[in-house]
Each structure stands twice: as C-alpha cells, then as structure tokens.
Amino acid sequence: MAEAWAARSALWQLTLARVREYLREPEALFWAFAFPAILTLGLGIAFRSPGRVPVRVGVEDGPGAGAIVAALEPRAGFTVERLAAGAIETALRDGRVDMVVRPGTPPAYRYDPTRAQSRLARLAVDDALERAAGREDRWTPVEQAAEVPGSRYIDWLVPGLLGLNVMSTGLWSIGFAIVETRNRKLLKRLVATPMRRRDYLAAQILARLAFLVPEAVVFLGFARLAFGVGNQGSYLACGALLFLGGISFAGLGLLIASRARTIEAVSGLLNVVMLPLWLLSGVFFPTSQFPAAMQPIIKVIPLTAFNDALRAVMLDGRSLSALPLEMGILVVWGLVSFGLALQLFRWQ
Amino acid sequence: MPSASAAPPAALRCTGLVKRYGPVVAVDGLDLEVRAGECFGLLGPNGAGKTTTIEILEGLLQPDAGEVEVLGARWADGAGRLRERLGIQLQETRLEEKLTVEETLGLFHAFYRHARPVGDVLRVVGLDAKRTSRVGRLSGGQRQRLAVGCALVGRPELLFLDEPTTGLDPQSRRQLWALLEDFLRDGGTVLLTTHYMEEAETLCHRVAVVDAGRVIALGTPAELVSLLGGDHVIEFALIEPTVTPPDERLRALAGVTGVRRENGAVLLATSAPHLAVPALLAALEPAGARLARLTTHSATLEDVFMALTGRHLRDG
After folding, report:
1. Domain segments of chain A: what residues?
2. Nearest-CA neighbor of B89 among B20, B165, B172, B10?
3. Residue from A215, A257, A272, A247 nearest A333 by CA
4. CA A209 → CA A168, A174, B213, distances in Å?
5. Which residues contact A14 (CB under 8 A, 6 or more apart)?
6. Rounded CA gap, B170 and B128, in Å?
7. Residue A161: which of A238, A219, A236 has the closest Cα?
8. Which residues of B are less than 8 Å from A29 in CB distance?
9. Can you tell me the distance from the alpha carbon of A13 to that of B103, in angstroms, rounded to the nearest whole number?
C-alpha cells in the first residue's frame, strides 16, 4: 500500500513540478497560446471567402473596340480595360486581365486555357457578346445563393491548425525541457534517487496533457469569435481526440529528445521531424493532392491521422466510433515512442 | 575520532577500481574502505579522479574494472533498494531555478519511502526563511545547502558529497560543515571529495590523498601530517637564493626532519620549531645570507600533498 502511494505521489510531484516550471516561463506560454491565434488570423485574412470576383477583360485597340467595350461595360461582373497591341502580353502575364478580346467578326479571344479564372472569363465574355449581337435566350433560370456551414477554407483550416499546434507545442516544449534538464545534470541527480524512470517520462506527458485543454479552448474560442468557425460534432469527442493526440506527440517529443545533449541538436532533430509533417499531413491543403503511391505513408503519419480525425468530428460531426483507424494510429505512435524513449534515454 | 582498532563494519568498500575515457585513465586501480559512522575524505587536485571515483561508488558510472560494495550490497544486485539508503549531492547539478525551495524538497521527498518531512529538512539545512523563494534567487551557499537538503530528505545512512563547498565563502562553508557534523553525530556516514585541506582537516576522520587516479596516502589527518616528519613547517627565502646552504646541511640542523624547495623558498619540516629556528639562523649567518622571508605554520594536508607530489592541491 505504502509503496503504491509513494509511486503515485512521485508521478504526481514530477508532473506538478513540470507544470509549475512551464507556468513560470512566460515565453513558452506565449508560443502555446498566442502564436496559433496569430497564425489563424493571418491565414484567415489571406484566405477569406473572396465574394464575387469580377471578370477582368482587356480589349485590344482597333476598329470595333468601342462597340465591344459598350457591350461589356454596363453588365455586372466585368471590368474592362482598353489595351494597345504592345501591352497585351504584359497584361496577360501579370494577371492584370484574365483574357483579351480582339475586335472583329467573329472576335478573337486570347487567354490561358490552363487558368480556371481565364476559362471562366472566356465563357462569360462570349455569352455577353453573343447576347449583344442579338442572340435569343431560351430561358432565364431561377438562381438560388447557398452557403453550406463548414464549407469555407477557414473551416477546413482550423482543425488542421489545431492539430499542428498540438504537435508543435508537444514536441518543442518536451524536447527543450528534457535537454535543459539534462544540461543541468538534473536528470543525473534524479536517477541517483530511487525515482522510477518511467515516472519521470510519464510525468512529462501528463504535464503536456494538462496544458492541452486550455490551449485548445483558447484557440477554438478565437476561431469561433474571429471567423465563426464552429464544431459540427461533440466537444467530448474533440477532447478525447486531443487527449490521444497529446499523448502521441508528447511521446514522440520524448523520443526525439532521448539522446540530444544540446538545444541546437534537439532543435535540428525537431525541425527534421516536423517539416515533413507540416507538408504531408494536410494542414494547409488536402493530402489527396499527393500522388497515390505516397498515400499509405501519408496515412500512417500521426499528424495526418490526427487532422483527419479532428476534421471528421468538427466538420462532418462524426463520432469516435467512426474513427478506429485514426485513433489506433495515434495510440500506436504514442506507445512505441514512449517505449523506445524509455530504452534509449540518456540520463547523464 | 574512531580508532583503527575498533574496526566498525565497512559502509563502503571498493577494490581495484579502473575507469578509462579513451586513452585517459581517470581512475587507476583504486582501493577504499569507508567505515560506518565515519567521515571519509577524498582529497586531491582537480582532475585527480575524485569525481569519477565517487560517481562509480554512487552507481552512476560503470567502472572498467574493480569491485564496489555499498552498505553490503552491489549495484548489479538491484539499485532501487540501495538508492533508498543513500543521499547524493553531485558537483555539477543545477536544480530547477523556477521551483521554490520547498517545492524542490517536496519533489525529492516523493521519491523516498521513508522520507523525512520537508519542514524538518528545511530546518536542518537552515533554509526555513527561504522556503518560498525560487531556487534561482538563492545565494551560492543557500543553493549548496539545498542540494545537501535534497540528499538528506530520504534519511540516508550514507551521504556522498562531491566538492560540497567549492566556490563558497568561508561563512557558508562553516554553515555547511556544521550541518554535516550534525549528520555525523546522528550516526550517519559521509564520503566527500574536496580540494580544501581545511575542509578535510575539520570534518574528516580519515583522508585518502588521491593523485592521478590512485590513492597515494591514507590515514587520519594527524597521521598524514606526521608523514612529513614534523607537525610544523618553517619556510624561508633569501635575498640571494644562490647562497642557500645545501639540503644535507639543512637536514642536519637540530630539530629539522625534512627539507623541500618550492619557487625559490625552502620548507623545513620540524616538530620542534624552538630548536630549528635558532639553528637555521646560526647556519645562515656565516654564509652572509640575508633573509627575505621567514615564517612558520602548523603543517597541513596541503604540505603533505606538496611533499608527496611536488604540486599544490589547487594547481589541478
């Protein structure tokens, strides 16, 4: 009995010590809380829903140009610019106009067919010019504007940023704390006591989990207030996923820091590990853009599993029972990392 | 001071200890025996192998050869139970600066099954008034006492201290000594390393002088001093060192038992300075030598180390 109590109390004290150290470190708190909010704000502004973008048309100077301008200009959705023959290439290349019309019968359209915006411009311009030339429409369709909740880029981005943030804070804060403690020869001092080594490592993970909840609440609260990003699923499911992700990345952090002796060494390792995760895990764009051959690798990356699961809950309102694969991947990464870290760990 | 004949059981024993770092031999066949209840000092300059030795004994380093027995047990037979009975202070540890004194002791308290209440330890190490201060705001002496407090919190039978007072001012040093004397009075055993001869002379019942990874002398401080042949040292230097009489003549002077030279000065060992000083002056006069300096002091372990190695303890 006494032994069990002492063991629990050592784990508790180690966790408490780590939480206290972290709370007394203002810079770490800034990175954990303010940085993701700033990142979201920046990306949210850059990728906000564009609204209705006008079609930009250049009209080459020459006979009949005036008639074309007169046909397009009064219609909604066009901005028209007259161009001298020598200025056409530059205007197209710089993207100042989506296409250029050379007057004539029939008129000539100059545009880049690989650009979606240019193809759209060509259709709209042709439609307008044909109508001006006297085409009769067979009908006027009934148009209904619709906005599906959760369909904006920012709605898709927020779960990915949350995943990214759980990973970064987990890896950086654990990696730095471990190396710092190792440098102070404090790890060596700790193993000179009867402390159990797994308690020390487990305490690092528990302390990380303690911070996940406030970090996620602040981040999701910000995304909701600033951009109206909601959660279609249950907050409980979200919390459970954060818990799993937290364990997984904290374990990975322990593994990365298990041998490093200097802050420089651990920073390098963290960057090497995190860069592919940033790129491959569908934080900023969907993983489906990568070739099929890479998909199996991408799927087993813990951040991919985490992001996919978070999006399934937050965007599609799925329950956890629909996500056994993603949750399994997170658990396996966490357990394997922890086990390896315990074996490899350099205490001195 | 316990006499050699009482022979209490050994708290710690090691034989034939060897540790190499690449081509460097840090510990070169070292034997030690520390008796229960004594304060044993490893005295030597920096780089003598003291820290390597003590860390092997603490079970933190693996020796390349040799046997270690701590409190009747071997490290290979299970470190967990043994660690419950040891208190350790390491030379280089810097405790977490953002925790308070009380929190730091509370953390170490949690590791031991029969730990001493944190309040008790705070009193013993004299940090009661600093209990809520962050470690980062403590003075060097207070930090060192906290480090010893962390070593004492598990009620150890054997305390390892690696240069516990290096870099401390004299007052802090004496505070730490007083606290170790209390520990010894309560029946504890201490193994400490130091390069302060005064520390070894004040605290230690027995001292092993270590140089280049070997024990070159062992005994009580008084026994070691007696190796010099006298418990006083007369030191003199001449304005013209060339006219100094040869060693044989100096050794023949009344009361002089040993001669050595150092940086142009001559040191004479004696147990009878009242005879040796007049004899020296009488011997110098006919040679026309004029003294630049003449001092006497009680012989110290520093003199012993000098006599054994030709170097100072702090030279490294």
Report:
1. 13-47+152-344, 55-132
2. B165
3. A247
4. 13, 11, 48
5. A195, A199, A200, A203, B107, B110
6. 21
7. A219
8. none
9. 9
Query: Does any CB of chain B come closer than 8 Å to the CB of residue A20?
Result: yes
Which tokens sit at A120? 């759209």
Helix, strand, coil percentages, rounded to 5, for chain A: 65, 5, 25
Q: Enter the tokens of residue B212.
A: 């280049």
Contact indicator for B167, B198 with CB cutoff of 8 Å: no
Minimal CA–CA distance to A219: which of A268, A257, A263, A162? A162
Strands B256-262 vs B265-270: parallel, antiparallel or unpaired: antiparallel
Prediction pTM value: 0.80
Q: Which residues pair with B88 in a beta bridge?
A: B160
Report phi then psi at B290, rounded to 5.
Answer: -110, 135
Length of chain A, in residues: 348
Q: Does B78 touch chain A (CB under 8 A)?
A: no
Give the separation between CA B140 and CA A129, rounded to whole angstroms: 87
- What class, spelled out in words, does domain A55-132 have in CATH? alpha beta
**pLDDT value for A203:** 95
Residue A71's CB is within 10 A of a number of other CB atoms, namely 20
Structural domains present in chain B: 4-224 (3.40.50.300), 229-298 (3.30.70.980)
At a CB cut-off of 8 Å and minimum separation 6, what does B14 contact? B30, B31, B32, B33, B56, B57, B66, B67, B68, B69
The pair of structure tokens assigned to B103 is 């929190």
Amino acid, res. A89: E
Among A347, A341, A343, A319, CA closest to A248 = A341
pLDDT of the residue at A7:
47
For residue A16, list chain B residues with Cβ-Cβ distance below 8 A: 103
pLDDT surpasses 60 at A225: yes
Determine the pLDDT at residue A270: 94
The structure tokens 């915006």 sit at: A117
SS3 B190: strand
Task: Report the C-alpha gap between B173 and A313 in whole angstroms.
Answer: 63
Residues of chain B with pLDDT under 50: 1-5, 316
Helix (H, G, I), strand (E, B) or coil at A87: helix
The percent of residues in chain A predicted with pLDDT above 90, rounded, is 50
A/B interface, count of CB pairs below 8 Å: 73
Nearest-Cα distance to chain A for B92, in Å, is 6
Residue B5: both structure tokens together: 């004949």
